[in-house]
Design brief:
The protein has a three-stranded antiparallel β-sheet with strand order 1-3-2. It is mostly helical. The protein is built from eight helices and three strands; from the N terminus they run H-H-H-H-H-H-E-H-E-E-H. The chain folds into two domains: 143 residues, Up-down Bundle (Four Helix Bundle (Hemerythrin (Met), subunit A)); 86 residues.
């Protein structure tokens, strides 16, 4: 690797540790003052910096993980999710994990991979709670009837991994995700772990997957119909 690039990576790691310390300090303060919005903003900015720098300098696991975590705090910023002891505890657990992911040797271990997946699953649950609240608000605005809030709503967790050649037949994946979002309230976590370095990218290949939480009154079959042109196997309910 180029020496200059290595220097930038080293600088990113140093700054990342600083961001992690800032997050930890802000979280401890937020635990005492859960309504203090400037602390939420401080945590969100630190996550955003980790996500951007991680993606730029090859720390893909950090970038992907902080993206998921950032989604929760975006919900908090918008008032769709409240700061709770459980959220603080989960975020502190995530901060500890981020420290480990900065160590590239440790981050490659099976144990850390399992730990990362477990924490990401907890994050998805919190994001799902935010999605349910958004759905309730949308239902009240569109129908004007508070009694209909939540009636018939079901929350799905969807793991969408399109084939690498899906773009070659003209499929527009973002249109597909937009169509899915039209069915209800959606929180989406893009997976970028298989994206290669820029020089190795083939423009016609798809390297992404998505984990999607959808809260909807639509039927299971209506959800399946969104994926009708990209399904290789029938989905399971």
């Amino acid at each position: 690797m180029d020496n200059n690039f290595e220097q930038f990576r080293k600088r990113f790691k140093e700054e990342a540790f600083d961001h992690i310390v800032d997050m930890e300090e802000a979280l401890l303060e937020l635990e005492k003052n859960p309504l203090q919005n400037d602390l939420v903003e401080k945590i969100f900015r630190a996550m955003h910096s980790l996500k951007g720098g991680g993606g730029m300098f090859g720390f893909d696991k950090i970038s992907e993980f902080t993206h998921d975590l950032e989604t929760i705090y975006d919900l908090v910023r918008r008032g769709d999710l409240e700061v709770s002891d459980e959220l603080i505890s989960l975020t502190l657990k995530s901060v500890d994990l981020l420290r480990v992911l900065l160590d590239e040797k440790k981050s490659e271990s099976v144990e850390i991979d399992i730990r990362t997946k477990a924490v990401k699953q907890e994050i998805a649950v919190f994001a799902g709670e935010g999605a349910k609240k958004i759905t309730s608000q949308v239902g009240m605005e569109s129908e004007g009837n508070p009694q209909s809030e939540g009636n018939g709503m079901v929350t799905y967790f969807i793991h969408f991994t399109p084939g690498p050649d899906v773009l070659e037949n003209g499929t527009k994946l973002l249109y597909l995700l937009d169509e899915l979002a039209s069915l209800g309230a959606v929180v989406t976590f893009p997976g970028t772990g298989k994206v290669p370095y820029f020089q190795d990218v083939e423009p016609t290949k798809c390297y992404l997957h998505w984990d999607i939480i959808l809260s909807t009154s639509s039927s299971f079959q209506e959800i399946c119909d969104v994926f009708i042109f990209v399904e290789e196997y029938p989905p399971q309910q």
